Write a sequence for this structure.
């Protein structure tokens, strides 16, 4: 899995790949006389963390091929990364419909893959930093970009249940959303048939 990198690191990657390709190893000394020590360490740290270069040994690195690095930018990763979060959240709106309907309604593709996530208002700064750290674009309320991105929905209190290792809005609330829009008719019928009457059992107040 790779992630986006700043322009200075991309230029360094271009230098490494033009000289060594994706097989020949190189060391940090390749940047001697080009950058200072602290900047050199930062460049290598950024590229390794982003997955654009790999560490072969204690001192040697190799480039990941450009084809893989670029294509992997569009890999879906939000649903796995969010499992490491330390603050409460809940997938909501269309994302909740997607999860509760076992993806009978699928809203994502590589060109545009939004996730709608409720967060507590007091944790907004945490979530902005969280998604920045993982190079995932995010917006508050509304927004859009190419590939995978998150729409944060700040609220005072979250109600959620766990499904597939993730926290999601309760089924009863999700079905109400699906029922109101003909576009989600198939997902609505799928959930209604699978879960039957909704008792509210399993809700969790975070």
């Amino acid at each position: 899995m790779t992630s986006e990198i700043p322009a200075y690191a991309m230029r360094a990657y271009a230098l490494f790949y033009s000289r060594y390709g994706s097989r020949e190893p190189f060391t940090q000394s390749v940047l001697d006389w080009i950058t200072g020590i602290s900047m050199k360490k930062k460049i290598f740290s950024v590229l390794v963390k982003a997955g654009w270069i790999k560490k072969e040994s204690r001192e040697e690195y190799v480039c990941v091929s450009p084809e893989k690095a670029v294509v992997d930018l569009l890999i879906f990763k939000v649903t796995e990364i969010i499992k490491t979060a330390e603050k409460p959240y809940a997938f909501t709106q269309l994302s909740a419909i997607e999860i509760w309907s076992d993806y009978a309604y699928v809203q994502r593709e590589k060109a545009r893959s939004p996730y709608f996530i409720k967060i507590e208002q007091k944790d907004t700064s945490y979530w902005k930093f969280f998604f920045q750290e993982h190079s995932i674009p995010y917006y508050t309320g509304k927004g859009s970009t190419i590939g995978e991105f998150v729409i944060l929905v700040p609220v005072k209190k979250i109600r959620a249940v766990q499904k597939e290792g993730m926290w999601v809005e309760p089924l009863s609330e999700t079905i109400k959303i699906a029922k109101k829009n003909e576009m989600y008719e198939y997902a609505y019928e799928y959930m209604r048939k699978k879960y039957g009457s909704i008792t509210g059992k399993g809700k969790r107040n975070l």
Summary: The CA atoms of residues 128 and 138 lie 7 Å apart. The first helix runs from residue 7 to 20. The radius of gyration is 21 Å.
